[in-house]
Amino acid sequence: MAAAAPLTVMAGVAPFAIAFGGIGAPAAYLATGLVLALFAVGFTTMAAHVRNAGAFYAYVTRGLGRPAGLGAALLAVLSYNAIQIGMFGAFGYFADETADDLLGLDLPWPLWALLGVAVVWFLGYRSIDLGAKVLGALLIAETGILLVLAVAILARGGAHGLSLASFAPGNMATGGMGGVLGLSFAAFVGFEATAIYREEARTPHRTVPRATFAAIAFLGLFYTFITWTIVQAFGDSGAVAAATDDPAGMFFTAMTEYVGGWATDLQRVLIVTSLLAALLAFHNTITRYGHALAAEGAAPAALGRIHPRHRSPWIGGVVQSLLAAAAVVVAALIGADPYNQFFLWVNSPGVVGILLLQALAGLAVYAYFRRDRAAAASAGRFRTVISPLLSTVLLCGATGLVVWRLDLFTAAGPEVNWPLVSVVPVVFLAGVGLALRLRSRRPEVYARLGGTDAEGAPDAR
User: Fold this and answer.
1) At 57, which helix (H) or strand (E)?
2) How big is the CA angle at 209 (ends 207 and 215), to the nearest 5 degrees?
3) Closest Cα to residue 6, out of 28, 29, 25?
4) Cα–Cα distance between 95 and 109 in angstroms, integer?
5) What domains can you pick out in the chain, each with its CATH number?
6) 92-94-100 Cα angle (round to 5)
7) CA gyration radius for the chain?
8) In this structure, how many other beta carbons lie within 10 angstroms of the beta carbon of residue 150?
9) Confidence band (pLDDT; 50, 70, 90) for 456?
10) What is the mean pLDDT of the chain?
């Protein structure tokens, strides 16, 4: 949930959803939550059969074969790195703006970003227990300030009285809702990382499914509720105009009007901590993918080394942090805008990649249970056939929507967007090619791909 950065998504993205989709935008978050819950049915059913911390990598390998699995692994590493590293641009930008306005401390954004890299590395190094406590505290703080705003809006009855017009069929079917659905799917990225922590969970067969459904339910209902309340703050007739005229200031304006200036200042600080929490969550995801790949010989063995005291994949954390720091330095040297270029452009292929991986994982679940008829009969047709196939179709549609309206994510034209999108299939195919090369040259490594794991499961092809 912290990876999704709820406060940043609401204050930074929801106004664009309202501007493009009208007052029906809250329904898009609800619809997205339902689609992802459908995906999670099959995803968590397979979790009981795949005892591997590789998440998408392990699932796709077991269902679609080792070449597709290694392609998914490389795409996951690229996608999570792109999202996390690009987010340091947003962190540097907001930290610089907030410190300057509230404290009069004016430092270049790269310094703030590098400070963020150091903090994230340290928390990731010190173990998942410490990281979870920090993430939990920051998540409570960022959602808490939004709930304060929501309660204040509801207590005053909004601008012109409370209305449920956002959920009227006519408002949910406007021409701009395709782009809004793309934005809403991107807002959930991160929930699927529950599966990578199975080695660190006490009872993963229970806690992984519970955590997955809890994350989806919370984000879906929370996003829907907060977006609806911000529409109420300006009224059905004024919300779209407010979102169009000043999308960056929409939530701050409402906070000042309904709660007070002190809450607006606090909200600005919490956006910075929201980004920090998301950065740490993605850092943990990346290092554990490296650990899973290293354990099977598909990545350097050092990436899988566990710290003897903190039990974290600490070398992988160092490598990932150095990569992020190098990207920040390069962006600073070439004069890239920290938000409009470094954040938005680097982030976008990661979003496309994660959505494509979700679609592949859904298909992999179906293929896996298609071969293991005994497990399929035990789990039931809905969990093993209907849910994975239907979610795959819907997630392919969501991926197409994001690619179609990538300009909403990058604020750029085709000359930027198409090269960014093309990275996704290139990396996936590179992983497939690497697996085929391993099959012919290092068959013992190829045989271990995605296989550290499933008792009684059919061997991956």
Assistant:
1) helix 56-64
2) 95
3) 29
4) 7
5) 6-448 (1.20.1740.10)
6) 100
7) 22
8) 20
9) very low
10) 90
Question: Percent helix, strand, coil in the chain (nearest 5)?
Answer: 80, 0, 20
Q: What's the rounded Cα separation, in Å, for the pair 277 and 180?
A: 25
Distance CA 83, CA 349 (A): 8
Contacts 24+ apart (CB under 8 A), 369-378: 369/45, 369/46, 371/458, 372/49, 372/457, 372/458, 375/49, 375/457
pLDDT digits (tens, 9 = 90+) for 310-369: 777 889 899 999 999 999 999 999 999 999 899 999 999 999 999 999 999 999 999 999
Q: Which pLDDT value is given to residue 204?
A: 78
Which pair of structure tokens corresponds to residue 188?
Answer: 């959930």
Q: What pLDDT is stored for residue 300 in this prediction?
A: 86
CA distances 240 to 80, 167, 187, 406, Å, are 32, 15, 20, 21
Most confident range, picked from 296-305, 355-364, 443-452: 355-364
Give the span between the Cα atoms of 217 and 34, in whole angstroms. 9
3-state secondary structure of 175: coil
Question: How many other CB atoms are found less than 10 A from the CB of residue 115?
Answer: 16
Show contacts of 334-341: CB within 8 Å, 24+ apart: 336/89, 338/89, 338/90, 338/92, 338/93, 338/96, 338/109, 338/110, 338/113, 339/89, 339/90, 339/93, 340/411, 341/89
Q: How far is CA 423 from the centre of its chain?
A: 18
Distance between CA 112 and CA 428 in Å, rounded?
33
C-beta of residue 280 within 8 angstroms of C-beta of residue 123:
yes
Cα 314 vs. chain centroid, distance in angstroms?
Answer: 22
68 in Cβ contact with 57 (< 8 Å) = no
Integer Cα distance of 347 and 131 in angstroms: 23
Tell me the mean pLDDT in the region 39-48.
89
